[in-house]
Amino acid sequence: MGKYKGEGSLAVRPKTTEEVSRILKHCNERNLAVVPQGGNTGLVGGSVPVFDEIIVSMARLNEVKSIDPLSGVLVCQAGCILQHLDDRVAKEGLMMPLDLGAKGSCHIGGNISTNAGGIRYLRYGSLHGSVLGLEVVLANGEVLDVLQSLRKDTTGYDLKQLFIGAEGTLGLVTAAAIHCPPRPKAKNATFLACATFSKVLETFRKAKADLGEILSAFEFLDKESLDLAVGTYEDVKSPLPGSPERFYVLLETSGSNEDHDNEKLHAFLEAALESGAISDGAVAQDGTQLKAFWRIREGVPEALNTHKAMYKYDLSIPQSTMYGLVEDMRARVGDRAYTVGYGHLGDGNLHLNVVADAYSEELTSLIEPFVYERTAELGGSVSAEHGLGQMKADCIGYTKGDSAVSLMRLVKKTLDPKGILNPYKVLPLPGEVTPPQDS
Ligand code: 2HG
Ligand code: ZN
Fold first, then answer.
1. In this structure, which ligand is nearest to the CA of 294?
2. Whole-number pLDDT of residue 439
3. Nearest CA to ligand 1 atom 5
């Protein structure tokens, strides 16, 4: 994003787990802080040094160790690029269980460390389920080997879970075993228009009921998001040009039988049109059109990033109250900024973004802490899938209570007593007041 700049003067590029281990042992002994860095596509400054921390780039740990076509288990190193992994497992008829806009450069180790969600979460769930095993280098250089490939295992505490979403603050993930589902043989995408947000919700309920197991994505965009993407990029075109509606949905199905999927999808669309849940829709006629529909969705965050000032919020909010927050924010900032709401509606994940030509104290104070307070009131999370990083380390208290934060501090102290691993991220500095949970 270009928003966070550190002052690191040293980057190391280990090639093996053994080298990562020696680096951490050395840094721990000499009290030198490190920042693990993957593809550098994070949105909360998690992989950027705050001061002069040493950057440990994982880019050269990029080997695929094994793929078992029967169990669907991939074992690879942390620096593998998500898109490369997906291309590789495709040869075995498999797919990666996650997909996101940054797939061309993000690393699987970074995905695991932020517990990245993305567009297929609705279908394939969290990395807490798909990651079967991990190899992690601990702060003192010790290598924790829990790189099993088992689907089921209840021997003791599930240690790997601690490192999924820990943003490199508890250890450096060097390798992972990941369960990959079969690659679908048939894929369909539709772009739908809805008059109101409650009609979007009605469409979602209906899609879950009628499409069942073939529903693989349900993304929503408000008109402001669509207009921005279409207005910024020539190759982004709405399949429903001139539509007057306020809301749009990109719905994808994937399954193993094209005729069966088509039949289900068309029955769903007919019923949704008839009930008035959707007012218009377009079905992708081929793979090129399917890609063009996804280009609209991917164009939204890209177009937002062309603005000089970007206030980016990645919130989990109960679906029924989700859009109210966008409307309230738009009313607060008025014409000082451009407010958009879009995201992974199927997972209750709203991307609320406010962009402007310049940062200003006035604008910031209209947005924060309002956005966090309202999210807490609604019982939501201030970080659904991007992590806390440095942007939101002191906001954890809006979503987690004191007892949880204290236990997290204890875990951190136990695994990284000298605090050398990605400091100033995830947890607020000791003594710093975090907002009380029920404020
Ligand atoms: C997405 O869903 C990403 O496109 C980025 O999570 C969201 O930049 C954003 O607001
Ligand atoms: Zn997202």
1. 1
2. 39
3. 301
Greatest Cα-to-Cα distance within the chain, rounded to the nearest angstrom: 69
Residue 437 has pLDDT above 80, yes or no: no
Residue 200 has φ and ψ, to the nearest 5°, of: -60, -45
422 ligand 1 Cβ < 6 A: no
pLDDT of 433 strictly over 80: no
For residue 304, the ligand closest to its alpha carbon is 1
pTM: 0.96
The DSSP bridge pattern shows strands 64-68 and 73-77 to be antiparallel
- Structural domains in the chain, CATH included, are 1-183+400-423+432-439 (3.30.465.10), 186-303 (3.30.70.2190), 307-399 (3.30.70.2740)
Query: SS3 for 55?
Result: strand
Tokens read off for 47? 């992989």
Q: Which atom of ligand 1 is nearest to the CA of 386?
A: 6
Tokens of 296: 């609209």
**Cα 210 to ligand 1 centroid, rounded to whole Å:** 28
* Alpha carbon separation from 28 to 9, 24, 144, 175 (Å, rounded): 18, 6, 16, 21
